[in-house]
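Researcher: Here's the sequence for the chain we discussed earlier.
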Amino acid sequence: MTATRFVIAGAGGATFPPRLLGDLCQSAPLAGSTAVLFDPDPVRLEVMAGLARRMVAHRDADLHIEATVERAEALAGARFVVSTFAVGGLRPWAEDNRIPFAHGIYQTVGDTVGPGGLSRALRTVPALVELAQDMERH
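Model: Thanks. This is the structure I predict for it:
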C-alpha cells in the first residue's frame, strides 16, 4: 500500500484507540501514511495525540500523526475511516450489560449481541450514519 491519509474517528477513547495505534505503528503497508485522530473532546484528543506521537517515536514508526476536533478537516483527503467511538461512553455500556443480567439474560459480549448489543446499536447507528454522510461529502 502506498502512503495514505486515514482517520480514526473517536480517537479520544481510552481502550480501543491505543491498541489500534500500537498495531498501526507496526504496519509496514502503512509506512509514510498519516493517521488523523478525530474526537470532538479536545482534552481527550490531545491526550491520545500525545500518546500516539510517543508510540510512533518509541517504535521508530514511519507514521505521521495529526489531530483535530473538526470532522470535516479530518475527512478531507482521507482514503478510509476507522470508527472507534462509543456513543455515551462507559456508563451506558455498563447498563447494557447490567439490565439484561438483572432479568436473567447473561451476555458474553454485550456490545455486539443480545439486548445490550441492540441498546448500543440504537445509540451508535445514528452517529455512524452521520459519519458516513460526512464521508460522502468529503
